[in-house]
Amino acid sequence: MIDSMAFPKGFLWGGAIAANQAEGAYLEDGKGLTTVDLLPTGDKRFEIMMGNLPSYEPLEGEFYPSHEAIDFYHRYKEDIALFAEMGFKSLRLSISWARIYPNGDDSTPNEAGLQFYDDIFDELLKYGIEPVVTIAHFDVPINLVKNYGSWKNRKLVDFFEKYATTLFERYKDKVKYWMTFNEINMLLHLPFVGAGLVFEEGEDKLEVKYQAAHHQLIASSLAVKAGHEINPNMKIGCMLAAGQTYPYSCNPDDVFDAMEKDRDSFFFIDVQSRGKYPGYAKRFFKDKNISIKMEEQDEALLAEYTVDYIGFSYYASRTTSTNPEINKQTSGNVFGSIENPYLEKSEWGWTIDPKGFRITANQLYDRYQKPLFVVENGLGAIDIPEEDGEIKDDYRIDYLRKHVLEMSEAIEDGVEIIGYTSWGPIDIVSASTGEMKKRYGYIYVDKDNEGNGTLNRSKKKSFDWYKEVIVSNGEKV
């Protein structure tokens, strides 16, 4: 253990999972089919993520990892008990939209779905674990995609507002922290994942994505409005996939290119946090001949109902160059990046940059002056059990230790951070690849990429390490 600076009293240490990567039970108790339920493993996965959907039903002969995932739906009590043993103060999780409204446009919610999350929240609160809930985490009811065009259609705003209001009314006394959309900027990079977008021939894909983005931004504001009216003590945040973009050189063209790439992410949060479209976005729309359809009240809604805090994920920084000779892409990450010669990479080609975590946190706080919540951070790696079943994931401990230390430095810098929920405290399905072998957890789940295994849970070496971090409130890492 390394001595560290103490974190604020009441700091929300914990972990983060998503419904579609953990729950399984994909059609159980009235749940409807979602976008993620149509993402197989293998070569077709990425093509579908980009908006090329071959069918609105699962295809025979394909393996869909979300259908069983790690069966958190039936095993949540066992898993939450393990989180409690680590001392979790919070658990970030998402609600499956299609468990509550199976088709998205249903007149009444599905009681079995509502009760399932009631039971989860009760189990968490029994151990003193604060639920941190994402309303939409990469899963749109497939009926809304098939019959409405998903977020292309303004009607999705009404469906989402109804869904969010149902959640706030049901869980107003159990959940304080909410986020509207997970990694909202991912809409631009993986449009089917981020917004259920399926492109038709002849469509202006860029305009479609930004029109869908506008609808999500309006829906987010309406959710903030509804949540604060139902319980003024609720904290409703936004969430972005963050990571500082470095210019490869001090060439002003590289510096400007890095700034523009960061703005791809900041655009959404600028609107959700500042309440209006930034000037650079308006110029971008003009230069690209993009016309966004807005209604009369939209600007006022965005201005009045901004978020309470900024949630963000951080896994890696990015590097960009305008020189085509050195513009060699790093594999593995959704965000294009050239190789940074100063940084190591993970087994999936993601840069490992703890100092970038501190830089990113400072950049976000300088920009928005709102509390930050680190809701994803972690290392995806291949964990191989030894003969006795033990998993000595020192590489994960090393990664997390360095990032936690840089987070403490950011707090010393004056950045207000209210919590840290590392990604995948228990092994879950990878969102990007659909694999199980890309593991993040402190808890090992016996399941392979083909769906074989007992689903038994076992502790890794990092389990006890993180337990000590939490009990010391970050004083020892």
From TrEMBL:
Entry's Gene Ontology molecular function annotations: 6-phospho-beta-glucosidase activity
Class of enzymatic activity (EC top level): hydrolase
InterPro entries listed in its UniProt record: GH, GH_1_N_CS, Glyco_hydro_1, Glyco_hydro_1_AS
E.C. code: 3.2.1.86
One GO term (biological process): carbohydrate catabolic process
This protein's UniProt keywords: Glycosidase, Hydrolase
Highest taxon, organism lineage: Bacteria
An annotated GO cellular component: cytosol
Catalytic residues (UniProt): 376
Pfam families named in the record: Glyco_hydro_1
Family: Belongs to the glycosyl hydrolase 1 family.
Protein name: 6-phospho-beta-glucosidase
Encoding gene per record: ascB
